[in-house]
Amino acid sequence: MLEYRIDRRSGVATYLQIVQQTQQALRLGLLETGDKLPTAREVVEATAINPNTVLKAYRELEREGLVEARRGLGTFVRRTLGHAPADSPLRGELVEWAARARRAGLDRDDVAALFTAVLDEQFVPAAATTPTKGDPA
Q1: Which of 21-25, 34-38, 72-76, 79-83 has the lowest mean pLDDT?
Q2: Which residues contact 32 (CB under 8 A, 6 or more apart)?
Q3: pTM of this prediction?
Q4: Using an 8 Å Cβ cutoff, are 18 and 24 in contact?
């Protein structure tokens, strides 16, 4: 079962942390269609957050079409995201890279900044790379 970790110092709203962690679990294949999310009560007991915060996160996930609430039964996954299974060989390579970065003296924020910069370079939106009328090719 999915266990949420709330970082109160992150600056990210608590409900968004729940949304993001659920989305990540969906991308990694840790949650699949039909799986049940923890109840609001279970999340509250594990994280000591307000029940309304959990409900707000679940409503956002429902609005995105990722989960559905079934009255009296709970909240269930409607669809998954992405194609990055948790056991992908790429994950192993990334673990090795992160360990090398740590040994090189980079902290978590340094690694995140470097990784984000590389992602931004590698995943440039098509519109940003396609010349428009009047632009030199």
Answers
A1: 79-83
A2: 77, 80
A3: 0.72
A4: no
